[in-house]
Amino acid sequence: MDFARIIFRDLGRNSRRTIMTITSIAVSLFVFCALMSFAELPDQMRANANNSVRLVCRNKAGLGHGLPQAYTQKIQGLPHITAVSAWNFFGSRYRRPDDTFPTIDVDVQGLEVIWPEWQIQPAALASFKRSRRAALVAPKLMQRYGWHVGDEVALFGEQDLVPVTTQIVGVLGPKAPENYFIFRRDYLVEMYRQFPHRVNPEYDVDFYWIKADSVSSIPSIMSEVDETFANSSYETMTDSEVGFFTSLMSRLNMLFALAKVICVIVLITMTLVAANTAAMSVRERRREVATMRAIGFARRQVAAMLIGESLTIALIGGIVGCLAAYTMLWTADIGREIMGPLGAIRMPLMVALYGIAGSAIIGFASGAIPAFHMVRRNIVDLLRSN
Q: Bridge-partner residues for 210, per DSSP?
């Protein structure tokens, strides 16, 4: 007996209800996967930075306070440090006030040493070091604006109203943050000198990226850097890359917790929808179940057929919902405005697998309870029921 054919034939018995149930489950799984992808961001960032030998040195008073550019040479002179680069997020707009992306001015030296996984091409790196107006751009950003190597990009500082005109000399590798626009810090300092009433960029380093010679050196570097600048006008707080991102994301802990709570509510709602559909389907087929048992079908065969219908509906809805969420989160820049330099929200493959597995479990459980209850009933009672 081809049970798969029977199951799919029975799904069309009430096509409207089947389609509505699949749609409800798909929408529920879509919301679940999107929220779980957001809630998983801290774990993803910690996993990516777990084996990193990079450190972040920032002002002890907080990220809103800068550090002097003069700290570069002092940090570089400390033991077990292989490279140092000053970073500053230059708030800018491109064509319109709402047309923004993470624009970062960096020190030229040490960029390829600190970020080898960015896979900057040697020719692009040489051009970046040679030209003061040079810029390196992430591939996603290049695609978004239709830029090409050699194009000039005019930016306008939002906070200090400083115009900056850069020229794209290369593209960052695929493992670099997908929305970064990087240009030279010495060029920005030069532009600021033309506007003496603006903030002095020599005291406007958001943080320093430091490359250690080994993982074992990180604790000693952290303490030595902070001791070097202790009791100064600009005291520092140095963290490992994992510690820095953990601290950065801790401000959003309430949102992450709320996302997980909503995920649980979505799963409960999906369970109720699937259970209601399975119960209605089984109840409508009392006489059919009795007839099948009367002509020789075993209880477990009838139960398997009823559970199979519920499982199929849940799986179809789960796959459609997870696939839609995966496609949308990897093709659209969802959450870019919220996450800023951390990038848009992307859906890990494991979240999709969890969603499909969850829909399968819910489909099985919601079908098993009414199915087993039905096959235990007396055949004569089932035939007499209306």
A: 55, 84
Query: For residue 355, what are its two tokens?
Result: 């969603």
Question: Quick check: helix, strand or coil at residue 306?
Answer: helix
Q: d(Cα 147, Cα 137) in Å, to the nearest integer?
A: 9
Return d(Cα 294, Cα 300) in angstroms, integer: 14
At what angle are helices 349-375 and 15-39 packed, to 10 degrees? Answer: 140
The total of other beta-carbon atoms located within 10 Å of residue 11's CB is 20
Considering only CA atoms, which of 348, 364, 373 is closest in space to residue 314? Answer: 364
Query: Does residue 168 contact residue 128 with C-beta atoms inside 8 Å?
Result: no
Q: Provide the percentage of residues in the chain whose pLDDT is more than 90.
A: 17
pLDDT in tens, 130-157: 999 999 998 888 988 899 999 999 888 7
- C-alpha to C-alpha distance for 64 and 171, rounded to whole angstroms: 29
In sequence order, what are the residues at sequence separation of 6 or more whose Cβ sits closer than 8 angstroms to the Cβ of residue 77?
Answer: none
**Each residue's pLDDT tens digit, 259-308:** 888 888 888 888 888 888 777 777 777 777 777 777 877 788 878 888 88
